[in-house]
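Problem 3 from the worked examples.
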Amino acid sequence: MDSIILKLRLLALRITGKFPKTDAVEAKEKALQNEFEEFYLFAKSNELLRFQELKTWIETKEYEQVKLELKTKTFKSSAEFQTEKEFIALSKNKALKDCLMLSQTNTPKEYVDIDKSGLPQKFIELKNYITSPEYKKERKRFVAENSDEYKKELEYNELKQNEQVKKFFALKKSKSLQNYFQIKDSDILSKYNKLKDLVESSNFKEKKAYLLSTDKFEKTEQYQKLQEYNKLKQSEKIRWYFKAIKDDKFKEIKKWELTFSEEFESKKLDQQRWLTKFFWGEALLNSSYSLASDSHWYTDGNNISIDKSILKITTRKEKASGLSWDSKYGFIPKEFDYTSGIISTGNSFRQQYGRFEAKIKITSLDGIYHAFWLIGDKMLPEIDIFRKKGDSSSALQGAFFWENGQKGKPKKSITSVGGLSLDSEFYILGIDWDEQKITWKINGIPFKVETNNLPKGAVYLVLSSGVNGKIDESKLPVNFEVDWVKCWTHKKNQA
């Protein structure tokens, strides 16, 4: 029933034109594989590593804590504010302001210099003398005699008109100058100068500007990290990477591990990988053989060629002598009218379970069959990934054969699929095989499922052509073309 449903679905795809072309299937798979390799490399990149580090840091909420802390850092709440406040208050002191003002002039020095000249002291001394009662009592006599005492009065009058003396006593009355001498050696001036140096320092100005600024967070390392994270978060590469993870885009690729790949890139067939005869002919006879029902002889590679990375198995009209296997009589000599070819991995590669595929194109002709099949050390079971029966129709078959008791004919399960352009187009034919079922596919589209009597052991690959009926010899030779053969196994710990 499952195979019937699958065939109907495949038919619907063909009718609606949605059946995938082989080139499109390959291009899609190649693009996905290339993208997966890019994904794998990016997973180890420094860019992603840095993003993951920043993401982990973001989740700690450290930057939010820093923001809160910076909000409390204002100028008014700082030691700098108190320092500046003290400096401003001190700057308003009248005595200090007078001191600072006069310190910028020559007045205090002039005052001190006049004082040191002795003129003010001499003036005061003479003034005290001539205004004394004793001098006033005898003044007339002193004047009449032009005595030394009178000469002191004359000297006093002269000093009284002296500009320096007048300036001295004028300055001595100045409150500003008094403030100057009061402050100039005081602790107030020392404190003022220290505060002034501090407030006018570049460090203080920078700290004040910082505390007054509204973009303190933007100047932090945490802000830079946050910006870096946001930039990386918007990166097309980062977004692509995590979307691929979310969509599980590479789920199918990650299931499989490539175990065998043959692209036929050499001009000659790799003899270490491929036998050009039946496995048992190599193992028992070291010679090729055909089956009793065959009208062709399997030459040992003469009907195998490689051109432009395409392997060709050619069936031609050609006389040949060789051995034929008969289940009753064993190996017996036989004359053949045709030759063809067979290749297998019986000596080099065997596998139980997995995906087995080949990209093939065949010539459809009555009496000619082509097949890609899997077999173990016994004749049965046999999995025909595909076989072309020997007619010129556009149909091919997926088949499975297994034992039916010791003497009975093999049991079989065969599904035919038609409507294919076998002569002109390549198709990817394959199976997926696990413990529960075997699924046959054409260009990735399932068309047959088998769940009963599944093979128990490893199998090897066989590709062959031959003659199995009446044939129009004028149409020979015909080819079975193989672009590539690949096998995968299920990765461990993958669904």
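Problem 4, a separate protein:
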Amino acid sequence: MCSGRVDLEFILRAFANGHDGVFIGGCRLNECNYVTQGNYDALANTLLCRKIMANIGINPERLKIEFMNSSDGIRLAEAVNAFTRKVKELGPIGTDEGNDKKTLKFKLEAARKLVPYIRLVERERLRAPVKSEEAYKKFYASDEVNRLFNELVIDKLAISQIISLLNEKPLSTGEISRALGLNQSEVSRHLNSSSRQGLVRYDESQKRFATA
């Protein structure tokens, strides 16, 4: 199977199901067995997912991608063994990050809901102009991409988490802030934006925000 078929949603689902690490193996870049060059899509998904992981409190080193061909059996074994050792050093997911598994799963599920939107953003605004591993890594680490990622993805992710919380029960700004680890000014900004879009409302009787 082409590594390009390893969708961003698959990676997030693996972590949501409690896996401590995800290793993706693809054929060498520019040596794709198909005309699609899907291994570049796998690289883009990995770099994007690592940004999402950092934002929701998962060590990005828990996700690894390596490129090799069918004759690289020894290299594959070495890469997998090295990654396994790294994951063991990090410990069970949430341990190294200082987050409980319930909170992490909640944040991962919120991220999974955004995958169709993230695919669209990647295709239209976050696609590297040159196909090379160095160019992709440089592109996704650039200040401009970080700015766009925060503007187009991170804010949406925070709102998705807030809506998911409010689906369970009405909450105050402070309660949302503590549950998500966001400062209250950020939460207020997202609530105001969501209110204008008709997604949330303020319940005067409970002095709490609730879904509309």
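Solution to problem 4. Residues 73 and 201 are 57 Å apart (CA to CA). The longest strand covers residues 22-26.
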